[in-house]
Amino acid sequence: MIDLYYWPTPNGHKITLLLEEAGLEYRIVPVDITKGDQFKPEFLAFSPNNRMPAIIDPAPADGGAAVTVFESGAILLYLAEKTGRFLPSDLRGRKTVMEWLFWQVGGLGPMAGQNHHFNLYAPERIPYAIERYVNETRRLYGVLDRRLAGRPFIAGDDYTIADMACYPWIVPWQRQQQTLEDYPDLKRWFEAIAARPATQRAYARGDARQN
């Protein structure tokens, strides 16, 4: 059984989406970031960037010692390779999924995260920062909307870890001061993923304090 060190944030939800889709057994170990659990020495021992999520897999594919993985994108890649699912095996398909996975971890996530920070959590309102990150979030939504034109999923016909990486960062679209109706292809994609049974199971486990 995989131990998932988790708190119900977009990056945490990425991993439960994949675990539920793949049907892997896992146990949630809450990392309460509101109490600073991410700074505890026992967590830093295998997640040195003091960020969750992280996993411990006691049964890696090579049959060796338990494997620890930190960083949500790396975890998605590790689990996709472990299960042989949600990541194409052909060169071009894999390349496309990797492009959009890295787009999310390097762009959509950080920019939307700054949007959340300056809109909701900053001790003072800084209009320039708010405008900057709301506008950048809007630009990235547009990039994703254009990508999804004529495609059911980001990489094409199949649901992959690229979709799992991006979806949780669109869930709080209202907090990001966006309107899904402005992005019809993104909206169609978003609603299709929201309707997946595994998505619903993943979010039902979303309050780590109840696990």
Automatic annotation (TrEMBL):
Domain GST C-terminal, first and last residues per copy: 90-211
UniProt signal peptide: none
Pfam family name, one: GST_N
Residues of the GST N-terminal domain: 1-87
InterPro entries in the record: Glutathione-S-Trfase_C-like (IPR010987), Glutathione-S-Trfase_C_sf (IPR036282), Glutathione_S-Trfase (IPR040079), Glutathione_S-Trfase_N (IPR004045), GST_C (IPR004046), Thioredoxin-like_sf (IPR036249)
Top-level lineage group: Bacteria
Matches recorded under PANTHER family: DISULFIDE-BOND OXIDOREDUCTASE YFCG, GLUTATHIONE S-TRANSFERASE-RELATED
Family from the record: Belongs to the GST superfamily.
Protein name per UniProt: Glutathione binding-like protein
UniProt source species: Phaeospirillum tilakii
